[in-house]
Structure formats: structure tokens, C-alpha cells
# Entry
Amino acid sequence: MKRTTGTDRSITAKWRPATRAVRGGTWRSEHGETSEALFLTSGYTYDSAGEVAARFAGEAEGMTYSRLQNPTVAMLEERIALMEGAEACRAQATGMAAMTTALLCQLSAGDHVVAARAAFGSCRWLVDSLLPRFGIETTTIDARDNAKWEAAIRPNTKVFFFETPANPTMDIVDLKFVCDLARSRGITTVVDNAFCTAALQRPMEFGADVVAYSATKLMDGQGRVLAGAVCGSAQFINDVLMPFQRNTGPNLSPFNAWVVLKGLETLDLRVKQQSANALKVGQFLEGRVPKILHPGLASHPQHNLAMQQMDACGSIFAFEVKDRAQAHALLDALQLIDISNNIGDSRSLMTHPASTTHYSVSAEARAEMGVTEGMLRINIGLEDPQDLIEDLDQALKAAGL
# Structure
């Protein structure tokens, strides 16, 4: 296959984010196709035994097995790395495969991890349950408090792990402070950037070492496939992460990679429109509900920091009603917005985290991170925001608000 200008860093370095999302990492076969080709193959053939031996030894370029390389997946990896400003990227089967791989590939028994207390339920499970099972010590902190990061450091601290904005509490982490602190102490920062993607926030610009994604969310953007990605330096991806991935196999299928490539072409347009819609809906809800957690609103306690780090407010926010019964009543009254635990979709979706995404987290941990029984998380899609407002208005009234 022929690599087009979409892989020439001297050219792509001049491109703006929207262009990189459409053109970056494009390879073309001898047929000159405009859309990326879909390579559904598990293995490859070779012209000679010497050629395959050279490829396996790393002495010659080329594919060896789709658990290691696939042309369609490689195009996605190049594009995401380019968008993120990273040297390299490895695609993963799911977002949680990305988080697990990004952590386990570099941690051993006796190491220590400092993690944000507010996180997606499965990420908290990794920190609270999985890592300690293998002798890895963990400490969860209020990641909004810069002093807590420094206070939590131990001689064996290896990784800082956090998401900003956090799911679902919308806590904002001061990227520059935390990444600078980590680098000064030889600690690796692993940042979950799924709520923003590189279209809205690029943690590496603030000093992050590793950025991980659920590409299932905004990158696909239409609720079709599961996918994940981990970005970092070439040394980290090739020497630290790749041996783990090669031997454990959390690989993304070529078809799912192709779908995400198509999603990236419209990412910039979608995320900006969804952010604008989310701001309008948030402004409507403010004052109608007891509490709203929306980084785009001045009422958010970290609004200024969020807007310094993010290009727009994003499509996701949370708000609180009285209790679980009222939250469920509101969900049941919705006529347009779907009840769903996914996010980043072009359709508006709402869920009750305490009984869905954070159900597996203990009640004590939910209380610690601020996931209350009355909290609802909403993803604003591409519908007319006025239709969403009218649906929420009637649902709020039906729930007694």
C-alpha cells in the first residue's frame, strides 16, 4: 500500500485539528480508493522464508499477524496519534481495554498509583479491586485539589491516573499542574480523555505522558462499535505497551477500526455542535433542578479552569434531583431523549449512574466521588436543542420538578 501525504509529518504538522481528523493516516492501495480500505484478514503471506524471518525479527517492515498489525487498524492509529499530538498510538478492543492496558503494561507488584476518586465505574474497579489483587498499591484523592496530588506521592508512586472532566461528576483536573508535578517526580501521567477527544482537549499540550480513550464514545459518535486507543511516546508505545498487547491480545477488529475512521471525519463538526446544544440545554436546566454540574456554565466551581483547558464545554454534563425515585420518574417520562448508559452519541441519552455505570462501585465509593442517588448524567446529541428542552420540561413536570 502507498502512504499518502496524510502520514508525512512535515506536511501534517501544518494541518489544523479538523483537517487531521479527515486526512491523517491515510494509506491507499494500487486502486487509489478515496475511502480507507477495509482489510478483513487475520494473517499475511510472504514471498520467502527469509522475508518473514526478517519481519518477525524487526529487520524489515511489513505485517505479520493482525494481533500485531493490520492496515486498517494502523490507519486509525496514525490518525488518532496525529490528532492527539502523540508520537504513536495503539488501538484497543474497547475503552476499558485501553485503560487496563495503559496501566498494567507499566505496573508491577510493589508499585503505587494515585488516582482521581471521581471516575467511570469500571475505572474505579480497576483502582479499587484489580490493581490491589496483583500487589499494586492505590490511593484515591479529590483530584480537584492540587495539594492532594503532592501529599499522596510515595517513594514507589509510578502512575497518576485521572479523567477530566470526570465521569459523571464533571470534576476538572488542573492538567498543567498535575502533569508538571508528575514529571518532576518521575511519575507517568495517564489521562482518560474520552469526554473531550482531541477535538476539544489535548492533554499532551499540558505535559501528559499517556492519553487513553474509549473511541466507542465521541470518536465513533453514532453508537455503532466498541473501540479504544492509547497514545504516548514511541518509546512507551513500542517498548512498554506493545509487549503487553502482543501477548494479551486486547486488539481492535479491522471493521471497528474502519467505522471509527469514518466517525473521525465528522468529529470536529459533531462535537462543536453538540457542545453548543449542551450549553443551551444546561442554561435551561439551571434553576430548574437542585444542582447542575456543567463545565460550560459559570456556576460550575471550576468553569474557568475547564475553559482554559477545553475548546468548548463538551456534550456531557450531570444534574441532581431529590433521590433515586425522582430520578427514575424523570427518566420514565422522557419522550425524545433515550434512557441509555452510553455517551458521545449523536442522539441524546440519559442515565442514572448509581444504578447503571457505577452500580458495581460500592455505596461508600459512590459517596466519596459524589455520585448521589439523585444524580442524572445526560449526553446531548445533534437534535434541535429546543426539542430537547421541551422534552426535559415535560419530564421534569411529570417528576414533580
About this structure: The chain has a mean pLDDT of 95. DSSP finds 15 helices and 14 strands in the chain. Residues 2-264 form a domain with the Aspartate Aminotransferase; domain 2 fold (CATH 3.40.640.10).
